[in-house]
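Q: C-alpha cells for this one, please.
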Amino acid sequence: MFVLLNWRALRSFSFLTVLSALIFFQTAVGQTPSPSPLATPAESSKSVQTGKPPVIIIPGLIGSELINKTTDETVWFNIQRSKTDDLRLPISTNLKANTDNLVAGDIIRNIKYLKFLPETEIYQSIASSLILPGYYKEGSWETPDAGDFQDTYYVFPYDWRRDNVESARLLMQKINALKLKLKRPDLKFNIVAHSMGGLVARYAAMYGDADLPSGTRRIVPTWAGAKSINKIFLVGTPNEGSAPSLSGLLNGYSITRINLPFVQSISKFDMFTIPSVYQLLPHGGTLRAFDENLKPLRIDIFNPATWEKYGWAAYTDPKFVKEFTIQEQAQAKSFFRVVLNRAKHFQEALDANITAKSGVPMYLLGSDCKPTIDGVIILRDGKKNRWRTIFDAKDFKRSDGTKVSGKELEDVLYAMGDGVVTQRSLLTSSLGGAKMQGKYKAALPVREASFVCATHNLLLSNAEVQNKLFADLISKSE
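A: Here is the predicted structure, written as C-alpha cells:
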C-alpha cells in the first residue's frame, strides 16, 4: 500500500509538490506500487492475441528527461541543481523561438533521489507490463524493425515545458515518419496518455499537425489525427484544467519540502516562462474562487489585469528585477499577455464541439478517492495592503475579525480525485454541454470511464488500471 494523504495532510502541498512529495514519501518508507497481475509468470505463459495495433505511451508534465544537447548532462530529472542550466525558457512574444539547450531524452522510467535509497518507478511499470512474451515489445521511432507495425509499443518523450500544440504536432510528425519507414500508410496506433500527455494526444487527434488558427476564427475540429489514431486512453488527464496549476504559477515547486540551494526546484519565476503550465489552468468559467465569506467570485483567469490586481503576475514581485535581465523585464508583460492568450486559445480548441461524436474513441481512467485541490480563496489583507490567495485549508480571520476554520475550508477547497486532478476535470463535468453519460456527467463523449483508488503519479502502476488498459487495448479495433 502507498502512504495515503488525508485532507489535513494535503494542506502542506502545492501544485507539483503533491506529485513529487508522493514519490518522495513512497521512496522514504521503502514502498513500491503493487505489481500488476499482468507481470506474473503464470500470465506470461498464457496464449495471448497477436497482431495487436501498436501502442504509444505519452507521459505527463515533468515526465520526460531534459538533457543539455551540448554537454549531454541530464538536467531533469536530477535532484541536484545543474551548474550550467536551469529549467527557465527565454521569454519573448514569439513563443516558438523561446528555446534553450535542453531537449527531451527518454521518458522518466525510474528516479533515484539519493544513492542509498532504492529507485522509484515512474513510467517503467506500465512499460514492463506490456513487454511480457506475447504481449508487446518496445520499438524504435528511428530504426523500426519491419514487423513493428503490430505487438509493439513506442514511448513519446517531449519537452514538457513547451506549448502543448507544439508537442502534439511533433507527435503527429513522428507518427507519420514512422508509418513511412514501416511502409504502412494506413497504420493506426492506440495511445495511452498520462496527465498532461492526454491533452497532447487529444489535440493531435482533433487537429493532426495543424497549428491553432490565428485571429478570432471559430475553431472546428477536423479530426485529422483519426487516420493515424485508433483509440486514446486518458489516464488522470485534467481535461478542464487544474487549480494546482495556478498554485504552481504563484508559488513554484520544490522537490523537497525545504528549499535548498543545491537541490533542483522550479521557482515561480521559472514557471512564469513555461507555456504548458498556463495551458493547465482551469478552463474559462470553471475556476472555483471564493471571497473571505466563502461566496463565489467571478474571475477571468486569462486576463492579465486579473493577475496584476491580485499580485499573481510574477513581474509584480519585487524580486523579479533580480531574476531577469533588463531586456527580459521589458518583454515580460507582452510575453505574459501572449502566453495567457495562447493557453486560452488552446483550451478553446480542445473544448470546441466536444459534445459531438468523437472522431477517435476515448477511454477515461482515473481516481475518485483522494482529496484534491479544487478551489482558491482570495481575501484582502488590510494590514499589509495586499491580496492573499489561499489554496490550503488553514484557519484564517475575515476582515471583521471573525474566524473561518480549516474544516469549513476543506469542503470548499477540495474535491475527490487523484490528489492532483479532480474527477470532474477528467470527466469535463463543468464544461458547457455536459450531460449524464451512464453514471457520470461529462461533456467529452467517452466510450468508457473507469475509476480506481490511486494517487495521480501511481495510476499507471495500479494493477486495476493496467488490467483494464490491457483488456481494452486487445479488444477489437474501432
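A few notes: The two ends are 36 Å apart (CA to CA). Residues 26 and 32 are 7 Å apart (CA to CA).
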